[in-house]
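Known limitations

Structure tokens in this collection are predictions and should be treated as such. Users comparing against experimental data should check residue numbering before alignment. To illustrate the layout, the record for MFS transporter is reproduced below. The input appears on top and the generated tokens appear beneath it.
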Amino acid sequence: MSRAEQALEAAAPGGRIGMYRWRVCAMLLAATTINYIDRQVLGVLAPFLQDEIGWNEIQYGYIVTAFQAAYAIGLLCTGAIIDKLGTRVGYAIAISVWSLAAMSHSLAASVVGFMLARFMLGLGEAGNFPAAIKTVAEWFPRRERALATGIFNSGSNIGAIVAPLMVPVIAVTWGWQAAFLFTGALSAIWLVVWLLWYRAPERQPKLAAAELAHIRSDPPEPSVKVPWSRILRHRQAWAFVAAKFITDPIWWFFLFWLPKFLHAEYGLTLLGLGLPLIVIFVLADVGSIAGGWLAGRFIKLGWSVNRARKGAMLVCALCVVPIVFAVQADNLWLAVALIGLATAGHQGWSANVFTLTSDMFPRRAVASVVGIGGFAGAVGGMMIATFTGFLLETTGSYVPVFMMAGSAYLLALLVVHLLAPRLEPARLEG
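Generated tokens:
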């Protein structure tokens, strides 16, 4: 009996479904965790590197903008490259670049040196989400993708938790250069495991026929690649692009300015930053998984995919609104609670926004759509990085940025609904 016949037989009622696909999800979780550890090292060390290297707020904004610019360029290109080369090779190339770039920060001794290192890091790290989203689309049926995305996306929060826990200790013990070297080495270890272990579902001999049938239980899709010009004809693509452009900059602000905000407003030391940042990103981690679970729960209650996805996104958007009061908080832990609720809202939102791509586009186009949307988000990140640098240098006030954060998600949800009122699949043929 052929493997295809075994799969059909295993798909019959009563057949047991394996769990191998969740091992793949665990690999994506590990990669995303490392991805965010690498990028978060600078944010954790920023208040103290600023004194050592001698940059001002505007120059720090430029360093962050260099990362965002490369990230934008990388996302615009890597989605199509990964669609062409496949997730195994495409992911390997991306993580090779970002591993070397992360370690190169240890050689930087000036603003320009950090800008160059951040630029290369942005190019490599841009491949993570297009590759991970495409892997989820290949390994999970549509009804499980939001949860799988929420799980691997929670790695961004785990990375943001591990970084303030680990980086200050390494920096104080062995110097700030060692922090960049250590985190870059983690990427290299993941790369070796990925190349030795990962195969596509049809080529993975350890995958049971029943699980393969479960993975392929959605209607079959054509395998012809889709050019960007055809993707961008559809309002569904612009809905995802708009969501990323409006809300991604808020997450970038959280990553690169929260340590500076806590240091400036509450006088926290390098070691003192650890616990507040850990609490904030633990809450974000909970929000990431809860956001994906909530949409799936709504679907199980009989809601349409459209209503369930947007209902979950609305709940997440409302969680961010109270952050407007964080700047006036006279107590550190009240500020931490408000910011943590906002980061949880963002990550739950993000899990559902990423899943919009596989709701509305076939697997063969998912990485390209994610890349285009990620480009838009990174461009928004460039804008907020430069804006925040000039704002803080001239006024020292975080109020305008927190006001933007509180309103961004509701605005984005309105735009998504106007562009994709029913989340209908895009018809790419023809």
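For this record: Confidence is low (pLDDT under 50) at residues 1-15. The CA atoms of residues 236 and 311 lie 18 Å apart. Please report discrepancies through the issue tracker.
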